[in-house]
Structure prediction request, 205 residues.
Amino acid sequence: MTPDVTAWLARCPLVAILRGVRRDEVEAIGDALVAAGVVILEVPLNSPEPVESVRRLAARLGDRALVGAGTFRREAEIAAVAEAGGRLLVTPHADPALVRAAKARGMVAMPGFMTPAEAFALLDAGADALKLFPAEAGGPPMLKALRAVLPKDTPLLPVGGVDAQSLPAWRAAGASGYGCGSSLYKPGDTPEQVAAKARALIAAL
Prediction:
């Protein structure tokens, strides 16, 4: 059964984007994030050995976290991540075919978009949530305008430049969640550093 992304976002609206994470550190970082309260974890496919990192996270965290990958471009990548235990697809762009392929495997689909045309096409393909990317290009006013025309129950998550300082403005504009990259994890960060960043972001909410 497909995980309920709304329920996961209700537990914690932050999505940890672990770009550049290594497989030998990913479990300790995953433990630190979940202990701090962050339960949606994305390993971008332009990280080292991303499928293996997804496999390790999924096996270690089980139902304590929604684990998946981002930066998908091809359907074969979806198959590999799903077989590794990944349950979440995130893309930087609007590709309805990838959404349909993810939904066929029972995954949560959170594709990227920038325009209303892209948003409605992705929703029609079965997207569970939409990622506004790059969010800093339009800022909270853009999200507020999009929220006015999209279905009210559509989870919208700004990604790109989201940090503790900008979170309140995004929340006021109608964000359902927040994709956090460098404000939560940068290559070389220790699990302790990641946990401290997670606590700061959660406090900003």
